[in-house]
Amino acid sequence: MRAAxxxxxxxxxxxxxxxxxxxxxxxxxxxxxxxxxxSSLPQGLDVIxxxxxxxxxxxxxxxxxxxxxxxxxxVVDFANKGGYVVGICNGFxxxxxxxxxxxxxxxxxxxxxxxxxxxxxxxxxxxxxTNEHKKGDIVTYPVAHHEGNYTADAETLxxxxxxxxxxxxxxxxxxxxxxxxxxxxxxxxxxxxxxxHPERLNDPELGGVDxxxxxxxxxxxxxxx
Amino acid sequence: MKARIHVTLKNGVLDPQGAAVxxxxxxxxxDGVEKVRQGKIIEMELTETDAGKAEExxxxxxxxxxxxxVIEDYAVEIL
Lengths: 225, 79
Fold this sequence. Notes:
The structure holds 2 protein chains of 2 kinds.
Chain A (H helix, E strand, L loop, with lengths): L2 E5 L6 H12 L6 E4 L11 E4 L13 H4 L2 H11 L3 E5 L1 H8 L6 E3 L7 E9 L15 E8 L3 E3 L2 H9 L3 E5 L10 E5 L5 E4 L17 H10 L4
Parallel strand pairs in A: 1-2, 1-3, 3-4, 4-11
Antiparallel strand pairs in A: 5-8, 6-7, 6-9, 9-10, 10-11
Chain B lengths: L1 E8 L6 H12 L11 E7 L5 H16 L5 E7 L1
Antiparallel strand pairs in B: 1-2, 1-3
């Protein structure tokens, strides 16, 4: 599996995400780091990670400036051609701002930065990110965000539910997100955006391995690549 | 030519920051504030000298970057 992680000024989960991909990518397939000013992606990629952090200082709106950076045009092309993309935390915000995922992440309803482990329910197994789970599995991932309050109009929410595109929900909503939504999939199910951080609970040294399953699912699905 | 852009949350979109400001005003004794909505103002100087063209340009900027039209409305003033 060949993975790349996009780096913006202010990204701070980029290397954690690369380590998580490296662990499942197999021998000599090191994750490639791609700077936001690049206009093209490395050849032969299977999956791209958009990391957490505070790209461009969260100026204007979270993820807004990053979503218009040169590399994101290539990421959007990659996704539109059926490439796999996962955006975590600020990465999720970048994906909604770039139009790859619907809706928007607004300021947390209680106006506080929330930084803690949360329980999530796996709502669908129909994606390469969740197919090693059973529907309804409960996993624990950390969250750390000020803008994780998923908001979309009623029609969008209906579509997401109707097409089984809600990937994860919170069991105890920490930010006011509509319908407890923690992560969603694109229409072709190949782009995942989520606020919680699987890459931060991916090694016993970090206190747990719940996050590993997402990366193992991806690697298992892309094993021939 | 100068432009001033007002970006505000659409009606119906919950504005927790506005609500927090309203509570704080109440705590300071400013009674009778029923609703507060918070937004932002962006000012820019343009080389364009035709007001119509300037407005067109700024509207395109709003659609592409300055506002997230999923949740925000914008209004453009050419000064």
